[in-house]
Design a protein that fits this description.
The chain has 129 residues and is α+β, with helices and mostly antiparallel strands. The protein is built from 5 helices and 4 strands. Strand 1, helix 3 and strand 2 form a beta-alpha-beta unit.
């Protein structure tokens, strides 16, 4: 019975995935406009951030929309299909749960932030005008 439930949800995910990706493209907001100097400073700060995500995870889509709205150039790593990214997430963050934002502090210390609402609040606090 368990395999039947898994098969059902895998099939459902395969059917819905293209619609989720198209929906993300159609509903992604325009990015905020900054002066070139301000955008350069934001881009420099974003080099210390990495988002581990799945392409069709609704919570990851929510975070990616906010990244686009804030015009952030954050590196995205696919923890679903890239085994190296998946193992980095598990070793560093302790579990395979997305979205997860890896924050590298100035002293080299790493922080792993889970939960889409926490990530969005952090990005708004740090980068919103």
């Amino acid at each position: 019975m368990r395999w039947l439930i898994r098969a059902f949800f895998r099939t459902l995910r395969l059917v819905l995935s293209p619609f989720m990706i198209v929906g993300e493209k159609l509903t992604t907001p325009k990015g905020m406009v900054r002066s070139p100097e301000a955008q350069q400073a934001v881009d420099t700060a974003c080099k210390e951030l990495v988002l581990y995500q799945f392409r069709t995870c609704p919570f990851c889509i929510k975070v990616r929309r906010e990244i686009k709205r804030l015009s952030l150039n954050i590196e995205l790593r696919d923890a679903q299909h890239d085994q190296q990214s998946r193992s980095e997430l598990q070793q560093g963050g302790g579990e395979i749960l997305v979205p997860c934002l890896r924050i590298t502090e100035a002293d080299g210390e790493l922080h792993w932030m889970y939960e889409s609402d926490h990530i969005i609040a952090y990005l708004r606090e740090r980068f919103a005008a």
